[in-house]
Automatic annotation (TrEMBL):
Record-linked Pfam families: SLATT_5
Record keywords, A-Z: Membrane, Transmembrane, Transmembrane helix
UniProt-listed InterPro entries: SLATT_5
Descriptive protein name: SMODS and SLOG-associating 2TM effector domain-containing protein
Domain SMODS and SLOG-associating 2TM effector residue range list: 5-102
Transmembrane segments: 20-38
The keyword Transmembrane is annotated on this UniProt entry: yes
């Protein structure tokens, strides 16, 4: 805009400073996002979900045979969730907003 000869509300030095600040902010944001390893975290969460489904099926099978060993299932469950990051309170709130029917009381 400065080279186009259009009259601007801010002086050139203010616009240059703002441009530098925004460029650095975008660079920092890009680095932070790049190091967050979302793909690896998502894979870990997917694997944990699959393992929890397997544990749920095991519980269903044991309940049909009426020979449930709660202690073993509790140990397996604790082991499965110990390697996975926990959800935050905002994750729960977002889920309740997205799936209102499932959380109706």
């Amino acid at each position: 805009m400065q080279n186009a000869g259009i009259k601007l509300e801010f002086p050139t030095n203010v616009l240059n400073t703002m441009s530098i600040f925004l460029a650095v902010a975008v660079l920092v944001y890009s680095v932070v996002i790049g190091t967050a390893r979302y793909e690896a975290r998502a894979d870990k969460l997917t694997q944990c979900g699959d393992n929890l489904k397997d544990l749920s099926r095991e519980l269903d099978n044991q309940s049909e045979n009426s020979s449930i060993n709660i202690t073993d299932l509790e140990k397996k469950y604790s082991h499965l969730i110990s390697d996975t990051e926990n959800h935050t309170r905002t994750d729960y709130l977002a889920a309740t907003l997205e799936m209102r029917r499932d959380f109706m009381q």
